[in-house]
Amino acid sequence: MGTVLAIANQKGGVGKTTTAVNVAASVADAGYETLLVDLDPQCNATVALGLPKDTAPSSYDCVSGHSTIAAAARRTPFEGLSAVGATPDLAGANVELPRMPGSETRLREQMGAVRECFLFTVLDCPPSLGPLTVNALVAADRVLVPVQTEYFALEGLAGLLDTLSLIQRELNPRLTVAGMVLTMHDGRTRLAQDVEREVREHFPDLVFDTVIPRNVRLGEAPSFGVPVIRHAPRSPGSTAYMKLAKEVAARV
Ligand SMILES: Nc1ncnc2c1ncn2[C@@H]1O[C@H](COP(=O)(O)OP(=O)(O)OP(=O)(O)O)[C@@H](O)[C@H]1O
Ligand SMILES: [Mg+2]
Questions:
Q1: How far is the CA of 19 from the centre of ligand 1 (A)?
Q2: Which ligand 1 atom is the nearest neighbour of the CA of 9?
Q3: Model confidence over 154-205: pLDDT tens digits?
Q4: How are strands ordered across the β-sheet holding 74-75?
Q5: What is the pTM of this model?
Q6: In 3-state terms, what secondary structure has residue 136?
Q7: Distance in Å, CA 45 to ligand 2 centroid
Q8: Checking DSSP bridges between strand 120-124 and strand 3-7, what pairing results, if any?
C-alpha cells in the first residue's frame, strides 16, 4: 500500500513546491511509481514539471467530485513520475468547498486506487490553511513541513502543529508529521546557522538531518520545466533533495 505525503506550511514561499517536485522526482528516480498532485491554484508544481495549466482532468475536477485522483493521473516525461495538474480555476474551490456537505473529506473520497497504483503520492499545498490544505491533510498519511531558514522561521510553526493535531483528532487519526525540512539554507550566514539551531532545539525529533541549501540551480529548474535532478544532477540542490528523499522514505 502506498503512502500519501502532504507538503504543507501556511507561510508562502518557503519551498513547498520545490520540495514536492524534487522529492517526488527523486523517489521516482529510485524506481518507485510516484504521483505528484498540484493542489495550488498558482499551478507552480504543474509548470515545474513542464505541464500545461489547462490539463483535464485537473485537481479541480477531483475536489469538485468529477474525477478520482487515480483516474486524473497522467504520465510525465520523467520515468516513474505521474502527475495531476492544477488549473487556475482551482481558486474557486476555496469558495465552493465550504458550501459542500463533508467539504473536508472531498479529496479523500476521490483518491480512488491511488494507494494501489503509486508507492508515493505527494500533495503540493497552497500557502494557507484554507479548504484545499485541509482536504490534503485529511487525505494524507504524513505531512512534511518545509521551513525556510530565515528570521521568523518559527513564527506560525506552533500554530501549524496545533492545526495538524486538530485534524488528526477530528478528521484523520492516521495523520502524522513525517518531519520538518530546513530549506534555502545559506551556510555562509550567521542567521541561517542560528535559525537552524533554534528550530532543531524547538523540535528535536522532527527536523530531518538533510538541510536544503540555497542553490541557483534549484531556483532556475522550474523555468526549464524539469526537476533539478534532470536540470543539474550534480548540483548541491540535487544532491540534497536525493538525500532528503531517502530520509523521507525511511520515515514513512
Ligand atoms: N533551495 C532553494 N534555493 C534557491 N531557490 C529556491 C530554493 N527553494 C526554493 N527556491 C525558490 O524560491 C521560490 C519559492 O519556492 P517555492 O515555490 O518552492 O515555495 P512555496 O512554499 O511552494 O511557495 P508558495 O507558498 O507560493 O506555494 C521559488 O522561486 C523557488 O524556485
Ligand atoms: Mg508552492
A1: 8
A2: 21
A3: 888 989 999 999 999 999 999 999 999 999 999 999 999 999 999 999 999 9
A4: 74-75, 81-84, 34-38, 120-124, 3-7, 142-148, 176-183
A5: 0.98
A6: helix
A7: 7
A8: parallel
